[in-house]
Amino acid sequence: MKKVQTPEEAVHHIHDGASIMVSGFMCCGQSLSLIDALIRRGTKGLTVICNDAGFPERGVGKLIVAGRVRKFIGSHMGTNHVAGQKMNSGEMEVELVPQGSLAERIRCGGAGLGGVLTPTGLGTDAETGKRKIDVDGRKYLLETPLHADFAFVKSSACDKLGNAFMAKSAKNFNLVMAMAAQHTILETEKLVEVGELDPDHVHLPGVFVDSIAFARRR
Amino acid sequence: MKKVQTPEEAVHHIHDGASIMVSGFMCCGQSLSLIDALIRRGTKGLTVICNDAGFPERGVGKLIVAGRVRKFIGSHMGTNHVAGQKMNSGEMEVELVPQGSLAERIRCGGAGLGGVLTPTGLGTDAETGKRKIDVDGRKYLLETPLHADFAFVKSSACDKLGNAFMAKSAKNFNLVMAMAAQHTILETEKLVEVGELDPDHVHLPGVFVDSIAFARRR
Amino acid sequence: MSGPPLSDEKQGKRERIAMRVARELPEGSLVNLGIGLPTLVANYLPQGKGILLQSENGFIGLGPEPPKSKADKDLVNAGGSPVTLVPGGCCFDSALSFSVIRGGHLDVTVLGGLEVDEDGNLANYLIPGKMVAGMGGAMDLVTGAKKVIVAMEHVNKFGQPKIVKRCALPLTAREEVDIVVTDLAFIRVTHSGLLLEEIAEDTTVEEVIEKTAAKLTVLPKLKEF
Amino acid sequence: MSGPPLSDEKQGKRERIAMRVARELPEGSLVNLGIGLPTLVANYLPQGKGILLQSENGFIGLGPEPPKSKADKDLVNAGGSPVTLVPGGCCFDSALSFSVIRGGHLDVTVLGGLEVDEDGNLANYLIPGKMVAGMGGAMDLVTGAKKVIVAMEHVNKFGQPKIVKRCALPLTAREEVDIVVTDLAFIRVTHSGLLLEEIAEDTTVEEVIEKTAAKLTVLPKLKEF
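The joint structure predicted for all components is written out below.
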């Protein structure tokens, strides 16, 4: 059984300077309550790995607006003008990664791989600092693993072992991030008893989850 | 809508010398009826990529016993003594790949990756012929993509677009193989109308499927 | 993602581009439509052709926007707006979504552009010092899709050509663009450069050439759209 | 996978190994049990400790063998035999299964061995010219799991030591073994070699040393099991 906590309890041990993977795509499938609890806690100097910088007033974007993010690694920040400002002012370091490569890099971190080879980004600025490797006469970029101290992931429903189900497009980065972090906190809208989820409908095995935070659907 | 055929019709265009990925793990989740149809058709000189050589009298193992397999790429053949004999006699070429690396190599083929780096096999015979690449001071083997002309995959149920559901441990290599082949044939125990499968319960998107063969559960 | 309301003329141009792009989508194809102009293509999909739309945030079978009362926060498009699923749709995580895109399973990607050049290079994700949106899934889409269609207005808001000899902005991908559809022209990228195959019914070859900063080869039997 | 029936004595030895291995499994751990002897460990799992078994063919929550009438052809273990799922189990494909194994999410892997040596090298998948089974998932398991326990008889069927100075057979993995449990001994692989920590209640240190072809350091306060 995994610890079931409030969002406040679940983020209590997150230290300044921690790296956190935050699932979600434009806030869909994002652990909004964990983020809000972390903002209230005041934790700062974070490295945040998230698909996008979201919106200034919601989800991961609020962490950026509140000045808690030292470095942002993601694929897109066009919907959060504050993120762009903080990047231009030098207040926040930004590493832009093509979305597919971002997913693979996180997956590498969780799956024990040392990297993957992809043609995405060849001949673009995304090449910068990356090794090029030839396989069978084709050139690829070597994309290396991403890891983090914590992952904030989100489910529509989970059981007390952390086995989780994500409705529709709320899946996105949840599985790969839960695998790639040292400590994964699962925010869930619904908590059921062990045995209630169909084993064939589990999108995220509970073995990747360290603690569960219950928070209403929002 | 995908073509729905008999197993015989579905394998009719498979030529001598073709490469075929066959899903299944000790025959569980394996397209037994497609294999039987291919044996009846007489196709030979095949390269077969499958987790294991199965059993002499069932599934992929029958293809080996019938002498149709020129080259076998898999992780295990201990349950099919004929496979071992054919390897030792030189009648069948065998490439043994660690099971996790096999899954990743097939996934690479389907996901457009040029390879993955893994520590599995380092310092063993599985290194033979593989490049070693250092990342952050750690050594890895470069495992390169596997592709095939055809994939034989198997579902418990699918709709007429090929969206498929695999019960319990019958999932195994189905998804990655369906992605990695030029032409994927899905054998299914049950065929439902489009819209009958819950979009959150689909294990294999129909976009990876080229044709469907209906065959009773066995 | 919605900006200020567009003038009727501007909206008309965008609809024309979308209509022409829609005609390029093969029967039974899997298509990804980018945010903005490309999204309009969904309104003109040929019926009964079994075309499926993929959304890179994690599903196949993108359907129309729902009425507000039916919006589901767990079902949004890549722009974050509520959408629906068509029957036969299915959902998956980002790793599988980009395996679809990067593994060659996507037949067509339609996306906007800032610049396209004679070699089929595309720039559409960054204006240094100004727009810092990021590439999102664009680099993956353009590199992975079998066919890349850029759908954009022929000139930018300053009236300057967006089809140029050589992209000046940071590239999204090199030599991947197959077709450019604008309010004025349908242009194919070939090994020997840009081929003007069709022009809009209310323009002339001269206008297209004047508003293009790249060499255009004009197809002898030029069609109109 | 079932061979000829075993003698009572031989079966007793195997059960003893399984019992001792079971005591090594931490509370709440995720464990993979190999085919053959390691499978017996499932019969001795400590109750109420929340230990979950993983099966590399694609699930977590491996339960006992069902009665024949309840066997489900879609639910087998890595040896192809019918099994059950415990409540809270979940199923997945091979790519995710090996991400669990190779990504460091598996706490313990228990598997058989042909040879283990002083450096913690393991050979267990191939006897050139004889056994051509293949490595299956063994290389991944041994390389990926946090703790590797080899469960095997102390000597082979010819009475020869299986714990040796240097493996002669092709390796499954280099320097990955943590613990060896045999019918005679519990041996830990340390940076300074093999440490004999426990012996079976019906043997002596002398017998263990005699039947081991590697250097053993004997723990001063040797325990029995």
